């Protein structure tokens, strides 16, 4: 079974697998360093086939269209705005997370499969929080903070740039006393993070930029602050 | 509202991988640069697969936008930026062609029918690269070459190929594997027959 999967590397590099076969192979890839290495060199050879084609130049307007669409998808940072929203927003956020989960497989050139598995676990945790019917949702313009009755909380932020090299984003829960570290994360089109620690009513969730690995107390001014 | 400076920036000194790193930081000028480097090849590839200009444009657009969305996941130690980008475009093109079942009945041309236009952009390097890959393809045993071409340009899955060629799936799998492995070797040869040098007889 696994032996058969090794043989699929060439077909996968050529995009010649059915979606089911591709998923199965990708799961295998996560476990098989040999296939990851082989895929890298096969993908290079398959990619070379692109250069063997000849044809007309693309129409000039295609470039402008791509750039406009890119701009629409990731406009510049919107101002922070806090308001209470109906639980409907939670459903939308769940949908966004599911789409994100699927996107992970779809974008599966993905060499970061091992890391991805951890990310997926995080996303599932977030999805569970968002799917809790009694969760409260605080919308703040760039995303949402969702808090369950137990204080489990997830932060979803849209369009977050990758932190600079050697830096990470770090979330904090502040309930009057010193802010408590609540987890580190990177950037992305949609970043969904389960917070470590519990968010009580009235507590604030802050996000700062810190050195990689995170720190015990914030050293920077928060660029995002949401009151639960 | 724009974050980037009004001064025109030059990306000429940057590697493809460095440009992708900037794309990952939502730098739209870097995305434009990426398009200028790979848009033409991407479109040629998409057109070859989907054989429809409109659909080819869609595949290229979706491929570049996928790059825009996922650039932070790109790992330069695993793939060249060009390979990564062209894979994204190819995948979209294959998705399109699989949806457009009707096109599957069309005969498969040996090479794309349209003559190159806009040869100003068609720089010498692109031409050289095309010759080099075509030459390598010609050196493959016919059955391996056929399997690679039908899979990569035709968008057929291995099972569809097996059916179409009347062979067991295992045979098709082996041909693709052997063909791609051989192609990789041929392309790695530093001084193949098609080296880009004028040859003179002395």
Largest interface: A-B, 57 and 84 residues
Overall spatial form of chain A:
extended
Uncertain spans of chain A:
76-91, 97-112
Strand tally of chain B = 0
Strand sequence of the main sheet of chain A, in spatial order? 1-2-3-4-7
| Continuous helix count of chain A | 7
Discrete helix count of chain B:
8
Instruction: Characterize the biggest β-sheet of chain B.
Output: none
How is this structure best described in words?
The complex is a heterodimer of chains A (228) and B (202). Chain A is 41% helix and 23% strand. Chain A contains 7 helices and 9 strands. The longest helix of chain A has 19 residues, at 33-51. Chain A is extended, with a radius of gyration of 21 Å. With 202 residues, chain B is an all-alpha fold. Mean pLDDT of chain B is 82; it is low at 1-7, 107-121 and 192-202. At the A-B interface, helix 2, helix 4 and helix 5 of A face helix 2, helix 3, helix 4, helix 5 and helix 6 of B.
What labels describe this entry?
heterodimer, A: 228 residues, alpha+beta, five-stranded antiparallel β-sheet, four-stranded antiparallel β-sheet, 7 helices, 9 strands, B: 202 residues, mainly alpha, 8 helices, 0% strand, disordered C terminus
Brief digest:
The complex is a heterodimer of chains A (228) and B (202). With 228 residues, chain A is α+β, with helices and mostly antiparallel strands.
Produce the secondary structure layout.
The complex is a heterodimer of chains A (228) and B (202).
Chain A: H1 2-6, H2 9-13, H3 19-31, H4 33-51, H5 60-73, E1 83-84, H6 88-106, H7 113-131, E2 136-139, E3 143-147, E4 153-160, E5 167-174, E6 180-185, E7 188-194, E8 204-211, E9 224-227
Helix pairs in contact in A: 6-7
Chain B: H1 16-23, H2 28-50, H3 53-70, H4 81-99, H5 124-138, H6 142-152, H7 158-165, H8 169-188
Helix pairs in contact in B: 1-2, 2-3, 2-4, 3-4, 6-8, 7-8
